[in-house]
Design a protein that fits this description.
Elements (H helix, E strand, L loop, with lengths): L11 H8 L5 H11 L9 E3 L3 E2 L9 E2 L2 E5 L4 E7 L6 H14 L15 E7 L11 E7 L5 E12 L13 H11 L13 H9 L7 H42 L4 H8 L3 H9 L1
Parallel strand pairs: 5-6, 6-8
Antiparallel strand pairs: 1-4, 2-3, 4-5, 7-8
Helix pairs in contact: 6-7, 7-8
Pfam family, one: PDDEXK_2
InterPro entries: RpnA
Protein name: PD-(D/E)XK nuclease family transposase
Length: 278
């Protein structure tokens, strides 16, 4: 097996190693400040439990990748999604409900004032092909496109849409996304990532510097994800083939020739003949 120089921060193990350790919370703070609006900058964070239980035993619990609170009591959920998921937006909305509900105070006298909640989703897939933007900041607005409620924000990052090369990097935000997308291809530290925070990330991400047990966990994590994506690819390929077979049958019933049906569906002449003779 080819030993990587740096671990993938988009793996479960790599993400927790780089962003999820209290001793290195300055890394998470720097990253969040690069993706959040200027008015929402963070100065300190405290890591909190990532498991949130519903009020009723029959409801589903939520387990975040990271859950933090800043010095003002505002809540930050950070989620990594490596592969496309149905109803992903719904999931982020559902997750945001837990830090809202947990602020409810028992007894009399609570005036319902809430601290802000932020949900930051890092996605290694594209969830909106129609929009070329990859950095989405979503708020609750009214019919006049005016912000109705300032204390709930969703940030979505579609990493595959970020295609800048090293020579094009200008901002801290650019550098973070470039690192997340390309770190596993680095043979050494790129000169453009000279800031202290990026040097610290790359040092943490060195595969050979990990304890042997962590290396084994990382390798197993990668294997599970590759197996999962292979399963998805196989399922998608089967779905396309089933659709082509159905289309071919319909086209034959419409009177098209075997050659025309083969050209229209991508099936072979023999495959179309088998359908025609079935």
């Amino acid at each position: 097996m080819c030993i990587p120089h740096y671990i993938d921060p988009l793996s479960n193990i790599g993400f927790k190693k780089i962003f999820g350790e209290e001793a290195n919370k300055d890394i998470l703070i720097d990253f969040l400040n690069s993706v959040l609006p200027a008015e929402d900058q963070i100065y300190d964070l405290t890591y909190k439990s990532t498991e949130h239980l519903p009020k009723n035993d029959t409801d589903r619990k939520a387990i975040y990748d990271l859950y933090c609170e800043n010095d003002k009591g505002e809540k930050f959920i950070v989620e990594l999604q490596r592969a496309e998921q149905t109803h992903f937006k719904d999931r982020t909305i559902y997750y945001s409900s837990f830090p809202i509900q947990e602020q409810a105070k028992r007894g009399k006298g609570w005036d319902y004032e809430l601290k802000a909640v932020y949900v930051i989703s890092i996605m290694d897939f594209i969830f909106d092909e129609r929009d070329e933007d990859f950095h989405h900041i979503v708020q609750l607005k009214n019919q006049k496109n005016q912000v109705f409620y300032k204390k709930l924000k969703f940030v979505y990052l579609e990493l595959p849409k970020f295609r800048k090369q090293e020579k094009d990097l200008k901002t801290n935000f650019d550098k973070w996304l470039y690192l997340l997308n390309n770190i596993t291809t680095f043979e050494q530290m790129p000169s453009v990532l000279k800031e202290h925070i990026f040097r610290k990330v790359l040092k943490l991400a060195e595969y050979t510097a990990l304890p042997k047990a962590d290396q084994e966990l990382y390798d197993e994590d990668l294997k599970r994800f590759r197996d999962y994506t292979n399963t998805l690819d196989t399922r998608e390929e089967k779905g396309r083939r089933d659709a082509n077979l159905k289309t071919a049958k319909n086209l034959l019933q419409m009177g098209l020739s075997i050659k025309q049906v083969a050209q229209g569906t991508g099936l072979s002449i023999n495959e179309v003949k088998e359908i025609a003779n079935a």
